[in-house]
Every structure is written in C-alpha cells, then in structure tokens.
Amino acid sequence: MKSRTDGMWWGTAIEAPDPSGLGRFYADLLGWHIGHEEPGTAIVAASPQGPFFVFQQADDYRAPVWPPADGEQRPMMHFDFQVGDLDSAVAEAVALGATIAEVQPQENVRVLFDPAGHPFCLCYDEG
Fold this sequence. Notes:
Blueprint: E1 11-16, H1 19-30, E2 33-38, E3 41-45, E4 52-57, E5 79-83, H2 86-96, E6 99-100, E7 109-113, E8 119-124
Parallel strand pairs: 1-4, 5-8
Antiparallel strand pairs: 2-3, 3-4, 6-7, 7-8
C-alpha cells in the first residue's frame, strides 16, 4: 500500500466477550506480551513493532461453529500456528484454556477453540 507510513500500526481485530481474558490466553499461548489494555480492549503484540492482535468487546458475541453449519455463526477467519511437537502444543493450549474440536481435518493439524470459541489450528510440518 503506497500510503503506508513508517511506524504505522498493523494488526488483526477480533471480537470477544472478554477481551482481557482472551488477550492473556493468546499472550501465554504465543509467548507474546500484552502491549495495551483498557476496558473493552486488549492488544497482544509479538514485539513493539507487531504483529498485533486486538481483542475488542462484543456484548452480543456468538461463538462460531466448527465445522460450519447452516444457520449457525460461521468461522470467518482463524489463526494457523506452526508447532514443532503437535501433541505437546495441544496439551499446552488445553492447559491454558483451549478445547479440542471433535472434527479434525488432517493428521498433522489440530483444530482447537480458544476460550471465546474462536477456532485456531496448530500445524505440524514434518518438513
């Protein structure tokens, strides 16, 4: 984008019923830090320059359904995280508050739900 300036903030905004709680979950899961927090907003960052996840309050939040089902809230996006040991990464995510989805698409991928119900994937690349 030609209009982008140095120092311009980049990130992804995600709706959540508890932005601070979800921010702590992802900060712990990824080893990132909470860069900013205020009522209704929590920002998690990999570094001061980003990337950033911004969790925003959604009072009427409905968790998406995985796999997608007619008439239900569809997952409109999800995170994929590459991991070195799939079983250990899943166990760590579950210990932090994630749950494992019943439907798993591939042997080297695990679909989990964060505490707000957003699906995310842990992916092992045998490489």
